[in-house]
Amino acid sequence: MPKIIDERARRETIAEAVWAITSREGLDGATVRAVAAECGLSTGAIQHSFPSQAALQQFAMELIVERVTERLTEMGTADPRPVPCAENATASNNAPAPAFDREHPEVTPAAEVHAALNETVTTMLLQLLPLDEERETEARVWAAFSTAALTDPDLALYARKMDTLLATFCRRCVKSLLSGTSDDDPAASDTRSAKSTPASRASDPAALAAHLHALLDGLTLHLLMNPAAAHRRQAAALIRSFVTALA
Question: Which of 60, 134, 141, 242 has a 20 to 30 A CA-CA distance from 71?
């Protein structure tokens, strides 16, 4: 029987080889011959999946956008509220600490809900920064593609998609922080109002989201240029400071 080849899986393997080479040598180094050697395929197999190097680069960039979209969607659907924990006890009398009741959120102290929300949003935002080797590689690859997109309209399409994706995510984060609840929390949606949020915080959510987006972009570039542990700690602290200011 002829060997059945999963073409989508092979295209993704080839794209990942492009990423690996790009992270080490830049996008110009990801030639068809180099990519074939990286993923153990013949140049003919590469050309069968991608008729041109431009098509290969476009798919590699598109796949980054797809993977980030999946990651942000996953993070966006996570419940930021605290998980019930009956074994926790207070320091004073060993009585069980108040547990979060997902069925009746009104019984949970507001401070506990806000603290959990702030920590979850912070964690999600930190996932977008190159704070470890894996994410540094991802950021290096994206930076190389973004630079190429400045003069390549086909790649620019994916750069704009990523920019829109991150802008939307930043707006969701700011909206959740300002309201003090999950963006998907129906229990709180009926009680939100301009009166419940201080004017200093709710005056311009769009500007705050743009600020956050620019902060993420700037910190990513800074960390690519200066990946030292001290700079990573400073970047994390800046994100925490932004979130705390909206709490």
Answer: 242
